Amino acid sequence: MNLDAMLRDKRVIVLCGAGGVGKTTTAAALGVAAARAGRHVLVLTIDPARRLAEAMGLKENGPEPTTVPPERLYADGPQGEGRLDVWMLEPRVIFERMVRKLSATESAARAILDHRLYRFLSELVAGVQEYAAAEALDSFLTDGHYDLILLDTPPSRHALDFLEAPGRLARFLDDRVISLFGPDSSRTGRLWQGAQALVGKVLDGVFGGGFAQEMRTFVGAFGGLFAGIRLHTERLRAQLASKDAAFLLVTSPEAAALREATFFKDTLLARGLPFAGYVLNRSWAREDGLAPAANLKPHALNAVDTDAVLALEHLAGVEDARATAHRSLLARLAEGLPLGAMAIAAPDAGADLEDFRGLVHLGEALTVA
Amino acid sequence: MDGGVVLDSLWNKRAVLVSGKGGVGKTTLSAAMAVAAARSGRPVLLAELSPDEGGPSTLAGLVGAKDAGAKVVPVRQNLSFVRLSAAEGHRQFLEETLPAKWLAEAALRSRALRRFLEAGPALKEMGLLYQMLTLVRRTHPDGRPLYPLAVLDLPATGHAMALATLPRSLLSLIPGGPIGRAMREGLDLLQDPKRTGVVLTTLPEPLPVSETLSLAKELKDVGLPLSVAVLNRLPEDPFTPESLAALGRLLETHGPHRGQRALERLERAREARQRLQAGTAVPQWGLPDLALTGPALVERLSELLVPTLEEAAHPGGREATP
Question: Which stretches make up the AAA+ ATPase domain (chain A) (predicted)?
Answer without folding.
Answer: 9-273
